[in-house]
Structure formats: structure tokens, C-alpha cells
Amino acid sequence: MNQNKWSRNRRNRYNWNKSRRNKYRWNRLLCSVNKWTKGRNLYYGLAIAASLLIISGLLSSLTLREEEKVKKQPDTSGRHAEEGQEPQLTDNPNIRVLIMTTGHAGIVHPGVEVSSAAGLVLSFGEEQQEIEPGQKAAFAPDDERFAKGNIRIQAKDGGEVTLDSIQRGYGVPSYAGTLELRTTAEGIVIINELPVETYLCKVVPSEMPASYELEALKAQAVCARSYAYQQMAEYGYPEYEAHVNDSTDYQVYGNSQAQEASSQAVNETQGQVARFNGQIVTTYYYSTSCGKTTSLEAWGTEPNEQNQYLQTVEVKDEEGDYERELPWYRWEARIQVQTLSNLVGLNTATDVGMLQNVEVTRTGPGGVALQICATGDKGSVTVDTENKIRRALGGSGYEIQKQDGNTVASSALLPSAFFTIGKEGDTFVIKGGGYGHGIGMSQNGANEMARKGKTYIDILTLFFPGITVE
């Protein structure tokens, strides 16, 4: 199994989404300031704007997304309800997913082609147009139909619409619900609007192999649903009224087709989410543990009452670590000094010269590296938090040997931040364990637990102490 396919770094997504939210909030602040300053001295208006920006920045830096309450209730049109309300899980509301281009390279398509074996119904403004079964409908950004409004596309039989102009992991993808096309100055934006439970049937197999045990798939379904409901509290793309996109920025959707086992897992957990202290929470996951998990301290976040469900736990039973026989449970990398010197210089944008020593100077819960110091003949550099540490020591040019003896080429990130590092002659030796960020649920750990008869409730309550599944 290609571990990169199933290992997701939620911290990168959090940073990216926070940036988008801050930009959106700043635009709203500017509008408010412009109204306030109308007819008044410009100096006072700018002073107020600066103050508002500072306050907004402080609030943003103090508040993690996983600690935010679900504030708005999405209805079946995908729009927001009043603040202070939580999603009604039994309603199966619609989620609006921005569909990215091939390879998830961007959000704007130069053109769009769609088809359906049953035929299509196009709606734009007050008009409708039917497309014959099997016939493709093509759209360019200057299509005259956009003059009458956004174009909404559905299959005549209520089935899926094939998006012929892009590729996904299994080939040409198709989508349930409605495809909404919006023209922009750069091209066309595509939003797929569909019930959240239907959405999850193509999220779960894209995030976890459908060949995994049913109870592991059910645990994944609850994690995915909890995350989706949090995202539906606000628009990730307010300019397009879309909650998420279909890439690793959020959850991967539609890169794999729906599978019987994963759809069964979604159906048998319908509406169920993870709660902590009564609130729906973000249940992070990754590929493989080293026998222990870590906390949000790995990302520089101090423990508090809201994130106590994300703490270090031992992934084992009375017989030992659940994942002790898996390839990525333990691994080793032997890197030439020159190679690692080049990588550290490139990845940290600091010329430390030829490395003399790399030391883990601070560890966190579970033994995760929280800080390293790399010293060379021209200086030194200190790197904090697991993702930045993994990136500083990652890159091409060396091999990693898994405990089963197989080797793989190094990639942009070190497999995990659970490691020790030493030097043998002109070679740095990194010995580590696990694959991924180590926060929350190990997907392979979940599968091994399911193999031993554990239920999805057992799995979730081990990895997320104190939660309830409701």
C-alpha cells in the first residue's frame, strides 16, 4: 500500500483554511471601516482599521479551528442558518464541495464537459435545457447561458453526472446531486452540492482502503462526518458559497469510487459524530503509529479543556502494540552528511554549511520531537513543531528502510517526528517509528484493532479519550 495515499496532514489544511478565513474577515472589516469613516476624518478611520486588524489577528492566533463551536446550521440548500445553532444530524443536509482541476492543481477550470447515460437537465435563470442521453454538454467561461445566472446540472434520472473534463485516481469521475457552474474572470468554478451522507460514501474510500475491516471503516466514517459537520458551519470559499474542496486541503472526496464496504460503514453510522464536552470535535487521523500517539503540542498548541480528547495514548492491548508487525512501525534512514547538509539548508533557508551535529533538543507527549537544532561549520538553525521538523529533514536523495526490510525513496517529509538521530562517521542515522503526524487515530492501528474484534466505538474511544459517539 502506498502510505502517502492514506496519510493526511491536517495541520497544513488548518493553516491554509485559517489564511482564507482571515482574508475574508479582513475584507469585512474594511467594509465596516469604510462605512464608519464616511464623512469623518480619514486619520481616525485608519486608526480604527489598524486596531480592528490587530484585535482580529490576536483572536485568530489564540483560537484553533478544532476548538471552535459549530455556529450555524446548514439547510438543504447548503446555506447558513442562524448563529448559535448546531447542525441537525438527522436532516442529512447538503454540503457544497468545490471540485478542483485534474491533480487538484487549482480551483478554476478553463472549460467544462459533462454527460450522463440518462441525459441531463440544465437550469440557468428561469430557463431549462435538456441534453440527450450520452451526449456531452460543453461550457466555456464566455458561454451566453451564464448571462442568465449560474448553471445547475442534474442527471435526468437523479443519478450521477459525469465530469468528462477532469481525471481522478480511478479515471473520469462522476458526482451525485447537482453540479453548479460559476463563471469567473479566470475560468469556471464547479461546486458539487449533495447530501452529506452521500458525500461521505466517496470520502471514506478515498481516505482509507475499502479493503480494511468494517469496524475500522466505521471509525473512519465517524471521523469524516464529524469533520464535515464542522466545515459546514461556515464557507471555506464564501465567494462561491462552498464549504470545502475535494482535496487534502479538507478531506479527499471522489478520488476513489464508492465501495460496498465503505458505503456500508457510512450507512451503519448514519448521523453519528464524535463529541467532547457536548461539542462536535475534529478527529484527526494519520497512517501508522509507533505504539503511541501525541497531542496538539506537536503543532505548538498548549493543552486546554477543549482539546483534552487529543492526548497521548498507548496503542496496545495486553499482548503488546497493535501495529508491532506492520512495516512502518519502525524504520531507519542513513543519510550522508553532504546530503543532509544540503537538505537542511534548502528546507530551512539557512546556510549552516557542512553539518556537524543534529540534535533533538525538546520532545513532547509520546516521545515526539518538538524541536531540533542543526549545527554546521557556518552556523546553526533551530526548527520547532513536528511538521516543520519532518520537512527540514525530508527531501530526495536517500532511502528509508522499513522494518520488513523493504526500502522506499525519501520524500518531502520524514515519515514521522517520532525518532532519534545520531552520527556514524560521515553518515547521520535516523531511527524512527510510525508514519504521519501522530495526532488522533492511526488508521492502521484502527484496522489492527478491528482484526482483534474491537468495535468502532472501542477504536474511537481509545484514540480520542473522553469523547462520546452520538
TrEMBL record:
Annotated region described as Disordered, given as residue ranges: 68-93
One Pfam family from the record: SpoIID
Listed transmembrane segments: none
Cited InterPro entries: SpoIID/LytB, SpoIID/LytB_N
Ranges of compositional bias, category Basic and acidic residues: 68-83
GO biological process terms held by the UniProt record: sporulation resulting in formation of a cellular spore
Ranges where the Sporulation stage II protein D amidase enhancer LytB N-terminal domain occurs: 186-274
Record protein name field: Amidase enhancer
Organism from which the protein derives: Clostridium scindens (strain ATCC 35704 / DSM 5676 / VPI 13733 / 19)
Phylogenetic classification of the source organism: Bacteria, Bacillati, Bacillota, Clostridia, Lachnospirales
